[in-house]
From TrEMBL:
Keywords: ATP-binding, Magnesium, Membrane, Metal-binding, Nucleotide-binding, Translocase, Transmembrane, Transmembrane helix
Origin: domain of life: Eukaryota
Compositionally biased tracts (Gly residues): 496-507
Protein name: P-type ATPase A domain-containing protein
Domain P-type ATPase A: 222-358
Topology relative to the membrane: Multi-pass membrane protein
UniProt record, GO biological process: intracellular calcium ion homeostasis
Region ranges (Disordered): 476-550, 814-833, 949-985
PROSITE patterns reported in the protein's UniProt record: ATPASE_E1_E2, COF_2
GO cellular-component term (any): endoplasmic reticulum membrane
NCBIfam families for the chain: ATPase_P-type
KW Protease (keyword) present: no
C-alpha cells in the first residue's frame, strides 16, 4: 500500500473520529440546554451564582414547603416607591400570584402586607385615599385588583411537552431507527407521539378555560377618593379605598342582578346579606353586619380586626350580595344608597384569590413519567448495557464491520429498554379506567391519579352533606320549664297558619301546610292538617323518653319564641311569579338561611315576613302574636352563640296580664309590675338567645342541676343540641336605647327555656359504603366542623369508631366558657397542656393530656380518639400534631385550614390518603389528598326549585298547546310553545322573525324550530336537574375526582377502579420488562449470529402485542373489594422474583432452541450480522420461540381475582390468546405449508417440532406456577385498621401489642 493511500485512510479515520467528537459535543450541548428545562436547580447552577449582598441579586430561588409544588427561579424586581415625602428602593418578587417584599430589618422577604389587621377605630375613621399621590403610591404597591388565570397559547404548552425528558428520548429513538433505514415505522411512531402530546395539551387548555369561566367580571362601583364619590371599574380598587356596595336596583348587571363583591371589604355602615357559596360551598346566605357594635366601647374599638373572628363584618371577594340595607346616618353618605365599606385586600390576596391559588398551585400534578418508571428503566438498563458491551467487544474484533453500524446497534440496544409505547400503554390503562368511571358519573381531571386510588390506605370523610343528609330535622325539645298540655283531640296542628315560607307560597295548598314532627332515622309519612295525624297522641319515642317533647304544639311559649324569632333567615326575591289580581305582577320570594333555623321555624309553624329595608317580623300561626326584630347580635363561630332583641305584641283574645311569650311561669306577675302597659295591648321587649350548650351555660342566671347530663346524653346519640334562653327587658326602653346596649349586657342573666334537639340523618348508602371500605383494609377517618359528641356518634354508626372513644377538648368546656369571650380570645399554644384533657362522652373516663409520645400511644391503644379544633390548634402550636393526628379517628370542630393540615400530616407520615367532601371548604383537603373526591349533588332546596320549574314548564307547555291549536301557522301547524314565565323559546323566536319578515313558514323551518326547542329543553333539564353542572362553590373546582352523586358510594367505585388500574399498570411494567430483556438478548447475541425477523413476522408480532395490551387494559374490577391489597409499587420481592424467574425460563428456552436449530442447519445457510434477511431454520425456530414467549408473558402475568375479572371472563384477551396459540400450533405443525412460506419460514424437522410443542407447554406451566407461588409468598402489605397499630416497634417496647389485640377481639 502506498504512502498516499495510507495517509488518505488515516485522514478518513481522523475525520470520522472528529465527526463523532462533534456529534458528542453537540449532543452534550443539547442535553445541557434541555436540563435547564428539566431542573430548576441545574438552571440556577449553570446560569447564576450565589451572592452575599441582596443589592447584587438579580433572581431568587424560591423553594416552597412540602406538597405545595416545585421550586422556581423568579426575577427580582427593583423599583422606587414613595413613603411619605421620601422615595425608597423596594426589592420584591412575584411567586405564584403572591408578592414578597424584602424587609431590611429582618434580612428576609415577607409577604406584602395589606391593611387588614388595623383597629376598628382606624376603620371607623377611614376616608379613603385623600390625594392622588396616595393613590399612586397604593397602586405602585398593590397593583390592579385582578384575579387572572392566564390562558397560554397552544404552542407554548406544546413546547413545554416537547422538551419533556420522555418525549425527547422517544424522538431520539425515532432518529436512531431512521438511521437504520426504518423510515415508515419511524415516521408513524413520531406521528403517534406528537398526536398523543397534542391531546394532552388540549385537555390542559380545556381545564384552564373551565377555570377562567369561574371568574366573575368586575362591575363598576362607587369609590370615595379625594373627598368625592366617583364611579370606577372594580379592577381599579385599592386597599384602603372607601366604597359604596350593595345589590343593584335593576337586573342589568352582568351577574344577573347580583352584585359580585370585587374585593375583600369591611362593612363600616349598613348591612348586607351575602351568598358565599363560591368560598364555602354552602348556599346558605350569610348576614353581614357593620362594625358599629365594635365602636360602642373603647376596649373593642382598640381591638384589631381578625378575618376569622370578625368574618361577619367582612364581605369576601367573589361572593354575591342578595340584599343590602344602607345607613342614611353614616359618616360618609353613599350616593346610591349602598353600604359603606373599606377595601381590605385585592387581587390574589382576597378570599377568592386564595381559592384560585389553591386550585392552581397547592399540589404537584401526577403524570405517567413518575420516579417508579425511571427506577425500573434504570434496572433494565443494566442488562441492556451488558448486552451492548458484548456486541461492542465482538464487533470491534471484526475489522471489516462498519463502525457506524456497530455504534448504532449498541445505542439501539441501550434504548430498547425504554419502549416508545410505554407512555401510551400506561395511558391506555388509565384511559380505560377513565371511561369506566365516567359511565358511573365519576369524572377525573388528573387521570394518572387513578392508580393512586388503588394504593389508598386512609379514607377521610366530611360529615354533613357527605355522610349525613344536608338538611336538619327538629326532633323535639328537652328541659322546657313550661311545657304546654297535650292539645285536645281533633285540634289542628300549629302549622295551620303557614310556615317559614308563608310569605312566598300559597297558603291554600295542603302540601304547604304539612309539617314534620317526629324524626329519628328518617322523616315519617307526613299527613295533612285535620286528618288522623292531628288526633295522634304522644308517639312511641315520646313515651319511651318522657323528657323529650316532640309535638311543637306542646313547646313552651318562650321556647317557641326563641325558635321562631332568634335566627338570621332572610327573604329574597326569586323573580316574578306571574300576574296578580290587580293585573300587575307579584314578586316571588323565598326564605333562605341556615337549614337548622329553617327547620325550627317550619316546625313551630310561625311565619317569617322579611322586609327589605324595614324590620323583620315573625308571626304566630294564628297571626295574633307579632315579634319584631329590633337588633340582632349575629352568630360568631368563636363565640358559638347568637341573640336578638324583639318587640313582642300579643293580641290573643282574653289575655290578662303579660304575654306568656314575654314572661314565664310564676314570675310573670312580678315581672309585669315593672312593665308599662301590662296586658295584652302593650308591647313587651325581650331577649332571645341560642347557642352551644357549654357556652350558654355561663350566661344563665341559674343553671338546672341536670343541665350537663341532658345535653350530653343527646349529643352522644348523634343529635345536634342547641341551648335556648330568654330574658325580659323593661318595656319603657326605646329602640335606640336597646340598640346601643352592649352585647355583654344583653346576653347576661338569661333564663334557660330548653334544649332543641336536631337530627341530621345518615344517608342510607353511607354505612354499607364505609363497611365495605373497612372490610377491604382501609383506615377510616372523619374530619368535620360539627360538634365532637355528634361527630363521634355518627362515626360509630359508619364503622369509623369501633371502640370506646375519648375526646380531646378544653377543660373549660364543662364550665361554660369554651368558645366564649375568655377561651375564644386565647391564642393557640399559650396555654398549658393541663388546659386540655381526654374525656369520654359520658365523662366516666377523664385522662390528662400529655404531649409525651408514649402517653399518647397508650391512650390510642385502648380507645378510639377524637380531637376538637381547639385541641388540634394547641397540638399544632406545641409541635405534636404530626404525632397526634395519625392516632385519631375523628376530627371535630375543625376549620378548612385544619382539614388540609390533617390530610397533609397523614401524607407526610407516608399514608396514601383519600378525602371526600361536598363543599369548597373542603378544597384544601381535597387538593392535599392523593385522591380527592368531590360530591356534586343538588341540595334539597335546589331539588325543590328544579321540581317546581319542571312543573311550571309542563303547565306552560299545556297552555301554549291550547293557544296554538286555535292559532296555527299558515299550514295549520301549531306554533312552538313558550318557555317558563310566558317567554318565547328559541324555536318560536325563529318563526316570529320569519313572520315579521313576511316569509312563508315551511315544514323545514318548523322542523328546525322544534329541534331548537328540544336542544333548549335538554340544556335546561341538564342545568336544572338533580345533578347540577359545575359552578363556583362546588368542591369539584379543585378536586381531581368529581362524582355526580348524593352519597359516598362513588368512593368505593374509584378505589375498585384504582386497584384494577394499579394491577394492570404493574403487570404492564412486568410484561414490558420481560419484552425488553428478550429484545436486548435478541439484538445482541442472536443479532451477531445473523438471527433476524422478516417484516411480516415483525408486523404480526407487533399487532398481536398491541391488541393484547389493549385487551389487558379493558379488565374490569370485581364488585366486591377484597381485604387482600395489590402491591402499591413494583419494587418488591414478588415483582422482581417473578420478572427474573420468568426471564430465566424464557432465556433458557430461547438458547436451547437456538442451539438445537443451529446444529440441525447446514453451515452454508448461516447468515452474518451484516447480511439481509433470508429464511432459514434458525430464523424460523427463533421466531416461533419468541412468539411463544410473548404469548406466555401475557397469559401468565394477567392478574384476575381478587381484583379484576379472571382471564376467562376477559373474553377479548382470552380469545386473542387462544387464536395466538392456535396460529402458532398451525405454523409449528406446518398444517398449512403456504402460510409458513408467506411468513418467511422454512420446514422444521420433526424432532424439533415435538420438542418445541412439549417444552413450550412445560415452560408455560413452570412460569405459571412460579408466578402463583411468588404471589402467595410475598403478598402486599395490609395497613392496620387503626393508626396506632402502625407503630409496632413502639407498641412492642411498651408491651401494648398483646393487650391491644385482646381488646380488639373483645
Amino acid at each position: 500500500m502506498s504512502i498516499k493511500t495510507q495517509l488518505a485512510a488515516t485522514y478518513r479515520e481522523l475525520f470520522t473520529y472528529h465527526c463523532y467528537g462533534l456529534g458528542v459535543a453537540a449532543l452534550l450541548n443539547i442535553l445541557a440546554h434541555l436540563f435547564t428545562h428539566w431542573s430548576i436547580r441545574f438552571r440556577a447552577f449553570v446560569s447564576t451564582s450565589n451572592v452575599s449582598d441582596i443589592d447584587d441579586a438579580e433572581v431568587v430561588l424560591v423553594v416552597p414547603v412540602r406538597f405545595n409544588g416545585s421550586t422556581e427561579l423568579v426575577p427580582l424586581d427593583r423599583k422606587y416607591v414613595k413613603e411619605g415625602l421620601m422615595e425608597v428602593e423596594e426589592l420584591s418578587f412575584d411567586f405564584r400570584r403572591q408578592r414578597f417584599v424584602y424587609n431590611p430589618a429582618a434580612h428576609a422577604f415577607e409577604k406584602l402586607r395589606f391593611p387588614d389587621k388595623e383597629t376598628f377605630e382606624t376603620y371607623g375613621k377611614a376616608s379613603g385615599h385623600g390625594t392622588e399621590a396616595k393613590q399612586l403610591a397604593a397602586f405602585d404597591r398593590y397593583g390592579l385588583n385582578r384575579v387572572d388565570v392566564p390562558l397560554p397559547a397552544f404552542s407554548a404548552l406544546m413546547k413545554e411537552h416537547l422538551v419533556a425528558p420522555f418525549f425527547v428520548f422517544q424522538v431520539f429513538c425515532v432518529m436512531l431507527w431512521m438511521l437504520d433505514e426504518y423510515f415508515y415505522y419511524s415516521l408513524f411512531t413520531l406521528f403517534m407521539l406528537v398526536t398523543f402530546e397534542s391531546t394532552v395539551v388540549g385537555q390542559r387548555l380545556r381545564n384552564l378555560k373551565e377555570l377562567r369561566s369561574l371568574q366573575t367580571p368586575k362591575q363598576n362601583i362607587y369609590v370615595y377618593r379625594c373627598g368625592k364619590w366617583e364611579q370606577m371599574p372594580g379592577d381599579a380598587l385599592l386597599p384602603g379605598d372607601v366604597i359604596s356596595i350593595g345589590r343593584p336596583l335593576s337586573d342589568t348587571t352582568s351577574a344577573g342582578g347580583d352584585k359580585v363583591v370585587p374585593a375583600d371589604c369591611l362593612l363600616v355602615a349598613g348591612s348586607c346579606i351575602a351568598e358565599e357559596a363560591v368560598l364555602t360551598g354552602e348556599s346558605t346566605p350569610q348576614w353581614k353586619s357593620n362594625i358599629g357594635d365594635q365602636l360602642l366601647s373603647e376596649s373593642t374599638a382598640k381591638q384589631r380586626l381578625s378575618s376569622k373572628q370578625h368574618k361577619h363584618h367582612i364581605l369576601f371577594g367573589g361572593t354575591k350580595i342578595l340584599q343590602h340595607t344602607g345607613d342614611k346616618n353614616a359618616r360618609i353618605r353613599t350616593p346610591d344608597g349602598g353600604c359603606l365599606a373599606v377595601v381590605l385586600r385585592t387581587g390574589f390576596e382576597t378570599a377568592q384569590g386564595r381559592l384560585m391559588r389553591t386550585i392552581l398551585f397547592s399540589t404537584e400534578r401526577v403524570t405517567a413519567n413518575n420516579a417508579e418508571a425511571g427506577l425500573f428503566i434504570a434496572f433494565l438498563l443494566l442488562f441492556a448495557l451488558s448486552a451492548a458491551y458484548y456486541v461492542l467487544v465482538n464487533g470491534l474484533q471484526d475489522p471489516t464491520r462498519s463502525r457506524f453500524k456497530l455504534i448504532l446497534n449498541c445505542i439501539m440496544i441501550v434504548t430498547s429498554v425504554i419502549p416508545p409505547e410505554l407512555p401510551m400503554e400506561l395511558s391506555l390503562a388509565v384511559n380505560a379506567s377513565l371511561l369506566a368511571l365516567a359511565r358511573k358519573k365519576v369524572f377525573c381531571t388528573e387521570p394518572f391519579r387513578i392508580p393512586f386510588a388503588g394504593k389508598v390506605e386512609v379514607c377521610c370523610f366530611d360529615k354533613t352533606g357527605t355522610l349525613t343528609s344536608d338538611h336538619l330535622l327538629l326532633e323535639g325539645l328537652v328541659g322546657d320549664p313550661e311545657p304546654r298540655p297535650p292539645p285536645p283531640p281533633g285540634s289542628s296542628p300549629a302549622r295551620e297558619g303557614g310556615g317559614s315560607e308563608g310569605g312566598s307560597r300559597g297558603a291554600g295548598k295542603g302540601k304547604d301546610r304539612e309539617r314534620r314532627v317526629t324524626f329519628r332515622e328518617a322523616p315519617e309519612e307526613l299527613v295533612p292538617d285535620g286528618e288522623a295525624g292531628a288526633n295522634k297522641g304522644p308517639d312511641e319515642d315520646e313515651l319511651a323518653d318522657p323528657a323529650l317533647v316532640k309535638d311543637p304544639r306542646r313547646f313552651g311559649p318562650r321556647a317557641t319564641l326563641v325558635l321562631a324569632a332568634c335566627h338570621s333567615l332572610v327573604q329574597v326575591a326569586t323573580g316574578e311569579s306571574g300576574g296578580s289580581a290587580g293585573g300587575g305582577s307579584s314578586v316571588a320570594t323565598e326564605v333562605v338561611g341556615d337549614p337548622l333555623e329553617k327547620a325550627a321555624l317550619e316546625s313551630v309553624g310561625w311565619t317569617f315576613v322579611g322586609s327589605n329595608g324595614g324590620a323583620d317580623v315573625s308571626l304566630s300561626p294564628e297571626k295574633l302574636v307579632r315579634a319584631t326584630l329590633l337588633h340582632r347580635f349575629h352568630f360568631s363561630s368563636h363565640l358559638k352563640r347568637m341573640s336578638a332583641m324583639l318587640r313582642v305584641e300579643d293580641d290573643t283574645p282574653g289575655l290578662s296580664g303579660s304575654s306568656p311569650y314575654s314572661y314565664g311561669g310564676a314570675t310573670a306577675a312580678a315581672q309585669s309590675a315593672t312593665a308599662s302597659g301590662g296586658g295584652a295591648s302593650g308591647p313587651q321587649h325581650v331577649v332571645v338567645a341560642k347557642g352551644a350548650p357549654e357556652v350558654l351555660k355561663g350566661l344563665l342566671a341559674s343553671v338546672p342541676p341536670d343541665y350537663d347530663s341532658q345535653y350530653k346524653r343527646y349529643a352522644a346519640e348523634g343529635a345536634r343540641v342547641i341551648a335556648l334562653a330568654h330574658k325580659a327587658l323593661p318595656a319603657d326602653l326605646d329602640a335606640a336605647t336597646l340598640r346601643s346596649m352592649p352585647r355583654e349586657a344583653v346576653e347576661s342573666k338569661l333564663n334557660f327555656v330548653g334544649f332543641a334537639i336536631f337530627q341530621c340523618p345518615l344517608k342510607p348508602e353511607s354505612e354499607p359504603a364505609l363497611a365495605a371500605l373497612a372490610a377491604s383494609s382501609h383506615q377510616l377517618v372523619m374530619i368535620t366542623g360539627d360538634a365532637p359528641l355528634t361527630a363521634c356518634y355518627a362515626a360509630s354508626r359508619v364503622h369509623i369508631v369501633t371502640r370506646p372513644v375519648l375526646v380531646l377538648g378544653h377543660v373549660e368546656e364543662d364550665k361554660g366558657h369554651a368558645g366564649g369571650d375568655t377561651q375564644g380570645a386565647k391564642e393557640a399554644g399559650t396555654e398549658d397542656d393541663s388546659a386540655f384533657c381526654w374525656s369520654s362522652p359520658d365523662e366516666s373516663v377523664r385522662l390528662p393530656f400529655s404531649r409525651d409520645w408514649d402517653d399518647m400511644l397508650r391512650v390510642a391503644s385502648e380507645y378510639d380518639l377524637a380531637v376538637s379544633g381547639d385541641a388540634l390548634a394547641h397540638a399544632t402550636a406545641v409541635g405534636v400534631a404530626s404525632q397526634l393526628i395519625p392516632l385519631c379517628q375523628v376530627f371535630a370542630r375543625v376549620s378548612p385550614d385544619q382539614k388540609e393540615l390533617v390530610v397533609n400530616t397523614l401524607r407526610a407520615q407516608g399514608f396514601v390518603t383519600l378525602m371526600c367532601g361536598d363543599g369548597t371548604n373542603d378544597v384544601g383537603g381535597l387538593k392535599a389528598a392523593h385522591v380527592g373526591v368531590a360530591l356534586l349533588s343538588a341540595s334539597e332546596s335546589a331539588a325543590k326549585r328544579a321540581a317546581a320549574k319542571k312543573a311550571a314548564n309542563k303547565k306552560d307547555g299545556k297552555a301554549v298547546a291550547t293557544t296554538a291549536s286555535g292559532a296555527g301557522g299558515p299550514r295549520g301547524k301549531a306554533a312552538p310553545g313558550t318557555g317558563p314565565g310566558g317567554k318565547r323559546t328559541a324555536g318560536q323566536e325563529l318563526l316570529a322573525r320569519a313572520r315579521a319578515a313576511n316569509q312563508p313558514i315551511t315544514p323545514r323551518m318548523e322542523a328546525m324550530a322544534r329541534m331548537m326547542d328540544n336542544m333548549e329543553n335538554s340544556a335546561m333539564s341538564g342545568m336544572d336537574g338533580d345533578m347540577p353542572m359545575l359552578k363556583p362553590g362546588d368542591a369539584s373546582m379543585a378536586s381531581p375526582f368529581t362524582a355526580k352523586a348524593v352519597s359516598v358510594l362513588p368512593c368505593t367505585d374509584i378505589i375498585k377502579q384504582g386497584r384494577c388500574t394499579l394491577v394492570t399498570t404493574v403487570q404492564m411494567f412486568k410484561i414490558l420488562g420481560l419484552t425488553c430483556l428478550s429484545t436486548a438478548y435478541s439484538l445482541s447475541v442472536l443479532y451477531l449470529q445473523g438471527v433476524k425477523l422478516s417484516d411480516t413476522q415483525a408486523t404480526v408480532s407487533g399487532m398481536l402485542s398491541a391488541a393484547q395490551f389493549l385487551f389487558i387494559s379493558q379488565a374490569k374490577p370485581l364488585e366486591t373489594m377484597s381485604p387482600v391489597r395489590p402491591h402499591p409499587t413494583i419494587f418488591n420481592p414478588y415483582f422482581f422474583g417473578s420478572l427474573l424467574g420468568q426471564f430465566g425460563v424464557h432465556l433458557g428456552l430461547l438458547i436451547y432452541f437456538y442451539r438445537l436449530s443451529l446444529g440441525s442447519m447446514p453451515d452454508s445457510e448461516r447468515l452474518s450480522s451484516e447480511s439481509e434477511f433470508k429464511p432459514n431454520l434458525v430464523n424460523t425456530v427463533c421466531y416461533l420461540v419468541q412468539a411463544v414467549v410473548q404469548m406466555m408473558t401475557f397469559a401468565v402475568n394477567y392478574v384476575g381475582h381478587p381484583f379484576n375479572t379472571s382471564i376467562v371472563e376477559n373474553r377479548n384477551l382470552f380469545n386473542s390468546l387462544r387464536i395466538s396459540a392456535a396460529f402458532l400450533f398451525v405454523v409449528a405443525a406446518e398444517l398449512v405449508p403456504g402460510l409458513n412460506s408467506s411468513f418467511g419460514m422454512v420446514p422444521i424437522p420433526h424432532h424439533i417440532k415435538v420438542q418445541l410443542v412439549g417444552l413450550s407447554f412445560g415452560a408455560f406451566l413452570l412460569t405459571w406456577h412460579l408466578e402463583r407461588i411468588l404471589r402467595a409468598l410475598f403478598p402486599a402489605p395490609v395497613p392496620p385498621p387503626k393508626g396506632y397499630q402502625s407503630y409496632t416497634a413502639d407498641l412492642r417496647r411498651l408491651g401494648l401489642t398483646e393487650g391491644a389485640a385482646e381488646k380488639k377481639n373483645k
